[in-house]
Amino acid sequence: MPYFIRLILFLFCLMVLVESRKPKRKRWTGQVEMPKPSHLYKKNLDMTKIRKGKPQQLLRVDEHDFSMRPAFGGPAIPVGVDVQVESLDSISEVDMDFTMTLYLRHYWKDERLAFSSASNKSMTFDGRLVKKIWVPDVFFVHSKRSFTHDTTTDNIMLRVFPDGHVLYSMRITVTAMCNMDFSHFPLDSQTCSLELESYAYTDEDLMLYWKNGDESLKTDEKISLSQFLIQKFHTTSRLAFYSSTGWYNRLYINFTLRRHIFFFLLQTYFPATLMVMLSWVSFWIDRRAVPARVSLGITTVLTMTTIITGVNASMPRVSYVKAVDIYLWVSFVFVFLSVLEYAAVNYLTTVQERKERKLREKFPGMCGMLHSKTMMLDGSYSESEANSLAGYPRSHILMEEERQDKTVVHLGLSGDANAARKKGLLKGQMGFRIFQNTHAIDKYSRLIFPASYIFFNLIYWSVFS
């Protein structure tokens, strides 16, 4: 009996198990259920998840001492360099420097960073790995300020190849000194250099060189400056010696700049030329118009002084003469001489009038004739003066004038010897004519001043252009 009961229970359990494994029929709802994708049932593996156990490192950074250079104690490690100039930001004549933004790349081989990989041709890292390995200590000679860009992160890239070759690139802005020669300013060309050198390693430990010769320097075609035309970039290299540390490899990035002249023609040369030409207007103004001629001369002198001061304010205080200084100061001398010319005319006119006054006091009968002669030479008559001459025929007036000239000269030369009397006669006649014809200085100035200034311009532009 117990055996029979156990058999029944066993069969019952077996039937329940079979029924539980049969698929359950769903109630018909009129909708067809689409099968679910099989990949949704699979769990994706998290590749960034840290696995238990010691990870396998491709770069064995912790196994080496990277405070020493590669192949320490052996021959100098060659480090190739190439540069791509992104922009020339500014050129400052006052500070004698320039600002440049560039991509600086280093190439060397460090067998300590070699790794075996069948799939990766290279591995690229950011600036965090740079602090853990050895990199060349290149710096910019004669730099005033420099920095590595850090927006949005440090602009540093490190690429390691399986055989141990390393590419180290960074984006830098540097302000460096440039020795400029302003003797031909603003008709000048300037050559500036950016110099690279290892700070600690001499040529026995590190050999710095241009990786591809002149092709190691690349420039952006869009580089332009407001005042300069960039003529050419080129590279050079040489050894630099320091008495306390030794010889170092130094690389040079040389570039030549040609200054645009049009800005200075508009701001400096044309205004200075116009001021000189304006000073010549006084030669056509009546010599008796003292306020007009004096005010014109002073105005042109002060304007030239302002132009000279403005040009020198934007230039370094050099101890030699610049080309623009020559032009401005010669122009200033022409303007100042035009003021002195009127001073001479005014002085001679005053002397002439004083002598005529003395002659009138000594010879009252000659007063009318001398006064009429002065009016004829000046070319201006008043109504009363014209009436005083109305009763004299022209031939009589001329004869009287010649007679008076001879009388004045004879009185001035009485008591001299015959030879001295002839010389004195000529000198007296010439001096008297100069005093009587002071307006002739203005006539000569109208020709001499423009001709001299044109001649100066021809020489200036042929020498400095």
Automatic annotation (TrEMBL):
Q: What keywords appear on the UniProt entry?
A: Cell membrane, Chloride, Chloride channel, Disulfide bond, Glycoprotein, Ion channel, Ion transport, Membrane, Postsynaptic cell membrane, Signal, Synapse, Transmembrane, Transmembrane helix, Transport
Q: How does it sit in the membrane?
A: Multi-pass membrane protein
Q: Which GO terms describe its biological process?
A: chloride transmembrane transport; gamma-aminobutyric acid signaling pathway; synaptic transmission, GABAergic; visual perception
Q: Which reaction does it catalyse?
A: chloride(in) = chloride(out)
GO CC annotation: chloride channel complex; GABA-A receptor complex; intracellular vesicle; postsynaptic membrane
Q: Where in the cell is it found?
A: Postsynaptic cell membrane
> Is-annotated flag, keyword Transmembrane?
yes
- Per the database record, which ranges form the Neurotransmitter-gated ion-channel ligand-binding domain? 62-260
Manganese among keywords:
no
Its main subcellular localisation, reduced to a broad class, is: membrane
List residues traversing the bilayer: 261-282, 294-314, 326-348, 447-464
Write out the similarity annotation: Belongs to the ligand-gated ion channel (TC 1.A.9) family.
UniProt name for this protein: GABA(C) receptor
Q: What is the lineage of its organism?
A: Eukaryota, Metazoa, Chordata, Craniata, Vertebrata
